[in-house]
Amino acid sequence: MESRFLSGQLLLALPGIGDPRFERAVIAMCAHDERGALGIGIGKLAPRLGFHALLDQFGISPGEAPDVPVHIGGPVEPQRGFVLHTLDWGGQDTIEVAGRFALTNTVDVLRAIAAGKGPARWLAALGYAGWADGQLEEELTRHGWFMTEAEEKLLFDTPVNERWGAAYRQAGIDPRLLAPTAGLA
Question: Which domains does the chain possess?
Answer without folding.
Answer: 9-175 (3.40.1740.10)
